[in-house]
Amino acid sequence: MSEQDDQIPEHDPQLPGKIKDSARQIWLAGLGAYTKAEEDAGKFFDRLVQEGEQLESKTRGVVGKQIRTVEDRVGEVRERATGTWDKLEHMFDQRVSGALRRLGIYRNEDVEALERRIELLESELAKLRHGGSFDSDSEE
């Protein structure tokens, strides 16, 4: 072999060893890159979770405030609507009662009041009868 043959890479006796070493270094670099990517991905994931928690706590406060505002407004509207409905119901009752009275039909409360008055008068009449001031034949 000449000196020129030694400089041609195919004739280098150490070439298979160098190729093997290079392949091993490439393999190890790939493993290192994979491990580093896994670590970074875990750290990145943890950072995303932490930022998500911070954002959630911030938005929870804002959303909670908005919900309370809406609930307050709904309560106010409900109170106004209930008051209006009560007024309408009262006006309706008054008008229906007036119309029924004009037709000669009395409310249940009116009939009950009359029944109480009749019971009171009957009681007074019974007291007078037992007191002897009325003649039992001339009562009816």
Task: Give structural notes.
By secondary structure, the protein is an all-alpha fold. The protein is built from three helices and no strands. The protein is 84% helix and 0% strand. The longest helix has 88 residues, at 15-102. The protein is rod-shaped, with a radius of gyration of 52 Å. The N and C termini lie far apart (161 Å). Residues 136-140 have low confidence and may be disordered.
Descriptive labels:
140 residues; mainly alpha; 2 domains; 3 helices; 0% strand
Summarize the structure.
With 140 residues, the protein is mainly alpha-helical. It has helices spanning 3-7, 15-102, 108-131.
Name the beta content range.
Answer: under 5%
Mean pLDDT: 81
- Tell me the structural class: mainly alpha
The count of helical stretches stands at 3
Number of domains: 2
User: Percent helix among the residues?
Assistant: over 70%
SSE string, helix = H, strand = E? HHH
Q: Which regions have little confidence, pLDDT < 50, spanning 5+ residues?
A: 136-140
Largest sheet data: none
Radius of gyration: 52 Å
Q: Termini, distance in Å?
A: 161 Å
> What is the total tally of β strands?
0
Note the topology.
Elements lengths: L2 H5 L7 H88 L5 H24 L9
